[in-house]
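Morning, I've got a small favour to ask if you have a moment. It would help a lot if you went through both lines with me. I owe you a coffee for this, so here goes:
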Amino acid sequence: MQKFSSQEKYLIANTLNCWPVMLQGHSVLMDLRNETSVAGVVDIADGHMTCELSNAVLIDRNGGQHPFDNFMVRNRMIRQIHIPTDIDVAQELRQAMEHGVLRRNRVDGRNTKRTFKQKRAEIRHKETLEMIAQQRSEKEQNQSNIQ
């Protein structure tokens, strides 16, 4: 398990920086700010969204493909991360909340109260899960009405 600094833990728990960490081991496509894309398996990701990909393919502006064994993407270069379709977003967020990716673990028995920021982050994650579930149900209703 990777060790994160306190700033990285905060970013993972309170922003969308949690996604590269949760996508470790999955194949992803990232659009970069210089109009190129890179596809590969996320090996390492930190709280600042810096990612290391293995078996990567860089796709340039003209559509040319350039394979790399390892490829590092700096956080400021990422425009968009395409989440694979086989991943259930709501389930991944729930698992991350339960397993501690989005929750800071207390080492000692002292100070077991959650801070306001931790409570607010958890509330926001739950709201996001509810919104995803609502959008999914609306989409299913629209598809059933079409058929």
About this structure: The longest strand covers residues 37-45. The radius of gyration is 18 Å.
